[in-house]
Amino acid sequence: MQGESVRSRTEHRSKSLGRLLAVSVCLCLITGMTAEAPSSFAKTQKITSVSGQEQYNRHYKPAGSAQSRLDAAESEYAETKEKRTGASDDLENLKSERNSLQSALDTLNTKMTEAADILDGLETNISNTQTGIETTWGRIEELSAVIDELQIKADEEYDTASEQIRFVYENGGDLTNILLTGSGSYAEYLNRAVYLQMFTKYYRDSIEALTETGKELTSTKAEYEKNLMKLEESKAALEEYRATVQEQYEEIQSEVDKAAEQVKTYQDEIEDTEARILRYEKELAEQESDIEALRKQVEEEKRISQQAANASWRDISSVSVDASERKLLANLIWCEAGNEPYVGQVAVGAVVMNRVMSSVFPDTITGVIYQGKQFTPAYTGNLALALSRDSATESCYQAADAAISGVNNIGNSLYFRTPSSSVSPKYTIGGHIFY
Q1: For 34-52, what is each residue's pLDDT tens digit?
Q2: For burial by CB atoms within 10 Å, which of 4, 293, 375, 388 has the most?
């Protein structure tokens, strides 16, 4: 069928089908272009291929006029703005929580520093007390040694004196006779008597002195031992207090670690949220630029529509369509109106043919469909995918044939889209408005 005109092909079709299509469309126009298809279209409205329906559900996109893209862009802009506002609120809440936690962490760090200072002081006191204990022990040991030496010396003195006394008693106990017997003269006797008295006094005084010194040293030792006991008790109390403070320090350290981890978590979330806000702001800037461009396109569409209304229109009979363009139109209809009633599919095809016949647009189906960003599926790749699979259903092909043959249920409308308060439609068919 390559190169054969559609008009010549459609002449081979049943004339009754053409009449049925024409009558049905006229009925639609008379009844105000409602969304319901006439009963004559009921059998062709449903997409018969299950796989085709699945493909359509995956790839269907709304109508792609500049106004619809503008509405979508403005809606997306509002959503992004709302997200940025929400993220900003989240950021403030996160910062508030982070600051509260940081304040608690600072308090804990102060307490931990105080506990550390107390521990350092306790360590110094315990060390000093241990030094005192060791010094006292050393002094006690020195005193014990001196006392032992004094005791030995006293014992020696006592033993010497005891020997003298024993000698006297063993010789009759008469000290005078002992002195006289051993003396050569009276003078020697006197000297011996004086010596004996001195000897006796010396040992008596020496023993008494040693004994007194021993008592004093023993008393001093007892004082040192008493002090030693106090030092050991003090050290034990300090060590017990240190253990308590150490336990508190470790508890505070644990709380500090937890608080620090929470602060870090909040800080990470804050940084993520700030990065998200920056992304939203970048998106908003890009969307604002897109919206501005789309507004210009909408104005251009209005200008073109007005220009087209005043421009000349070719007759449908002068339009030549080959098989590839038939397939192209059918698949565009599938992309744009695959889930619409049959009359809605015809209406989309009629928009394309209106443009082909208008002197303002390209004069071929291919030129119209691929004109810069006029039909969303054409520039998103969905149309190319549909063409590669020939996703168009029998209903879409019938709608394409009807539009190509001149069936028109949307007057001179050049655009279509989903309903919007920003557009005053000429016709409403199914889920689309036409203007």
Answers
A1: 333 333 333 233 333 334 4
A2: 375
